[in-house]
Design goal:
The protein folds into three domains: 135 residues, 3-Layer(aba) Sandwich (D-Maltodextrin-Binding Protein, domain 2); 89 residues, Periplasmic binding protein-like II (D-Maltodextrin-Binding Protein, domain 2, 3-Layer(aba) Sandwich), CATH 3.40.190.10; 67 residues, Alpha-Beta Plaits, CATH 3.30.70. The protein is built from ten helices and 15 strands. It has a six-stranded mixed sheet, with helices on both faces. A five-stranded mixed sheet has the order 8-7-9-6-10. A four-stranded antiparallel sheet has the order 13-14-12-15. Strand 13 and strand 14 form a beta hairpin. The structure holds adenosine-5'-triphosphate, 1-O-pyrophosphono-5-O-phosphono-alpha-D-ribofuranose and magnesium ion. Magnesium ion (MG) binds next to loops.
């Protein structure tokens, strides 16, 4: 049983959120400095609501990302709302499949979910940023060897968790009978083997689940990735932009590392080509005028190769450090 209530009016939502958070605990709990960082703001109404997948493969990654972006919060066991310490933001933990609807039609100001879910929910949300995770495709699948063309499934039984997209897709292929689209909530791949479907529409990343169920990909309906979205009617435009920048800063930081090294001045032109940096490398003179110290951002995935190249080019004291966050511009 989850104690969160979201209604269509903004103030009652915040009130419900606060009620859910503080529950029936004594009033003193609301003054716990751990939970209420702004003693002057006992009244937490009007906070930005941020929808976060409550479980599934996105949950852990997103929670890590939000912490990396400096959103500090304490979530009570079994409670689906958590207030942030240093910002007027409340995280609401919701099923990934419902977040687009809450952001598009409810009072949730921002959220994180898949583009597949946004398309399926048919809602109007602002896509602020791709998050580089949850990359997969929504595909038509059928028992291996049975179907070469998706038109062969038109008019037949198709099982999916994406009924809106599936109906739309097959409507464009039908020449006679309407495709019988049935919606189930998970393990969709089992439905052909269990006699419920002639074909399915589900997500494919590596293809392992599909092949294990004896299926093959017939066609791709869409490619999808996890995105940061906002409610177009939110009153929290500035806070939304602040959160977008923080998350973007964390994502950029997690893609880059900082390499520092010393190099003889006469070899600097070679080293600069190896580490051009994002804008340009920082170069500082050393006591020994024949040498300079250089620091530059490098992509994490190329860092080891870059260090090899620097050493081969005559650099010494090469150090690689992690970056925890950044504000680098988009
Ligand atoms: N195998 C996958 N690879 C990459 N992204 C995926 C994969 N499966 C799902 N996603 C993305 O994550 C979103 C949420 O799916 P996920 O499976 O994490 O949630 P769930 O189905 O609610 O949880 P669970 O499957 O644990 O019950 C999907 O809409 C899609 O955008
Ligand atoms: O191509 P793959 O790498 O095998 O990934 C695809 C599978 O991942 C998702 O399932 P999930 O694990 O979320 O289970 P569910 O079907 O119960 O949601 C998706 O629904 C596919 O079944
Ligand atoms: Mg799933």
């Amino acid at each position: 049983m989850h104690r969160i209530a979201l209604s269509t009016a903004r103030a009652p939502v915040a009130a419900a959120a606060a009620a859910a958070y503080y529950g029936s605990r004594p009033r003193e709990a609301a003054c716990d400095p751990q939970l209420v960082p702004h003693p002057e703001r006992h009244d937490r109404r009007g906070e930005l609501l941020f929808g976060v997948p409550k479980k599934g493969r996105l949950h852990e990654k997103i929670v890590g990302m939000l912490k990396g972006a400096g959103l500090e919060y304490k979530r009570e066991a079994r409670l689906d709302i958590a207030h942030c310490r240093d910002l007027p933001v409340s995280l609401v933990f919701l099923p990934a499949a419902d977040i687009a609807t809450y952001v598009g039609e409810g009072d949730v100001d921002m959220g994180i979910t898949g583009e597949d879910i946004i398309a399926e929910s048919e809602v109007d949300v602002i896509e602020l940023m791709r998050l580089g995770m949850g990359k997969c495709r929504l595909s038509v699948q059928a028992p291996a060897g049975s179907t070469q063309d998706p038109r062969q499934l038109a008019g037949k039984r198709v099982v999916t968790s994406f009924p809106v997209l599936t109906k739309k897709y097959f409507a464009g292929l039908e020449t006679g009978a309407e495709t019988k689209v049935k919606c189930i909530s998970g393990s969709v791949e089992a439905s052909c083997g269990l006699g419920l479907a002639d074909g399915i529409v589900d997500l494919v990343e590596t293809g392992t689940t599909m092949r294990a169920a004896g299926l093959e990909e017939v066609s791709v309906i869409m490619h999808t990735e996890t995105v940061l979205i906002a409610n177009p009617h939110s009153h929290h435009k500035e806070l939304i932009e602040l959160l977008r920048k923080r998350i973007s800063g964390f994502i950029t930081a997690s893609r880059y590392m900082m390499v520092t090294y010393n190099v003889p001045r006469h070899l600097l032109h070679v080293a600069r080509q190896i580490t051009p940096g994002k804008k340009s490398p920082s170069i500082q003179p050393l006591e020994d005028e024949a040498w300079v110290a250089v620091s530059a951002l490098v992509e994490k995935s190329k860092a080891a190769t870059i260090m090899d190249s620097l050493e081969a080019a005559g650099a010494t004291d090469i150090l690689l450090s992690a970056i925890h966050s950044s504000r680098m511009g988009d």
